[in-house]
Amino acid sequence: MKLVLEIVLLASAGVVYSADDCKRDMEVVCYYGSWSIYRNDIGLFTTEDIDPSLCTNIIYTFAGLGLDSKIGSLDPWADVEKRGFANLTGFKEQYPCLRTTLAIGGWNEGSIKYSVMAYTEESRKAFADSVLRFLVYYGFDGLDLDWEYPTSRGGLPDDGKNFAALLKTVKETIAPWGLTLTTAVPIDVSLLNTAYDAKVMAEVVDYVHLMAYDYVPSTSNVTGLSAPLSAIKVTVGNWIAAGLPANKLVLGVPSYGRNYVLKDSEDHDVGDPVLKAGEPGLYTAEEGFLAYYEVMEILSDPFLGMRSVHVDDTNYAYGNEEWITYETETSVRTKAQYAVDQKLGGMMIWSIDTEDFLGLYGTKFPLLNAIHEVLKQNKLKV
Questions:
Q1: Whether this model's pTM surpasses 0.90
Q2: Right CATH number for 7-256+331-377 from 3.90.170.10, 3.20.20.80, 3.10.180.10, 3.40.50.720?
Q3: What is the pLDDT of residue 17?
């Protein structure tokens, strides 16, 4: 029997919501990096810092695969003991139209063990059954499958067809219980051609989240823009041409910057040589990576003398030997309007914990609010 949520009773307020009340014109998907609870000082971000009113779907990252190829917690202390899972799914008591999703995978999980899990029909079904039990037990509304990436990083050439089969198996298993299936996909066109069957995905998944950033990674030996709109347009076109309907494609934007150390401080244009990835941020502590609030801290320091340049509907800044590619409210508005014009399924942000969630440099969650401004201007319901 298919279990579909038609009416949600918000007991505390005595309000009844029908399925029609929760219909929306576009998605606003918010990824939450659960490891942000380990950051210090103003970087510390917990579920209490989330504003659920700004998201239609909050995705908790990440669960992982165990030795038995079944889903499991990667950090039981954060997820269970500190009630990360429960706090996130608990938002639905106050926001009954909100969806809370659990993501499995991510970069650090790698690809090989997902390749092994997806290799046989038996192991795919065992995984799907474990997903159903896990989601229901912890109260999530769906799964976001973030295998990075089929056919690469040690995977097999058969991963493409096995990934398609895995999606079908998971959807057939969880859909009868009203649970959704989404997946995150890369910008690499060679992966699109080998690892993903867009036509199958169009039939099976509810939404595809396009990670439209890191067009130039932190390992690059030259400066480059992380999220230039011209490149994004090509990538979106590639996915649609491959068979994915525009209304199932959700466009991702980064709430972080990539930084580099210039080889010569006088050579600071796009494409100029760099020595290495930039120094870690004080709070995020990752080379070549800065949270949006860390970028703003650097740009607002008059002693650093950073100069900002807006190009290709994104931004970079330079000063001395520092070079940063990042987004602003303006560039995010442009990308949101592009998503509206192309009738995409919505917008996604990676990630809410690297936003200016404290409002240190203006409005709280400025990038997310910029997305909402555009959608409201276009009279779209979210």
A1: yes
A2: 3.20.20.80
A3: 59
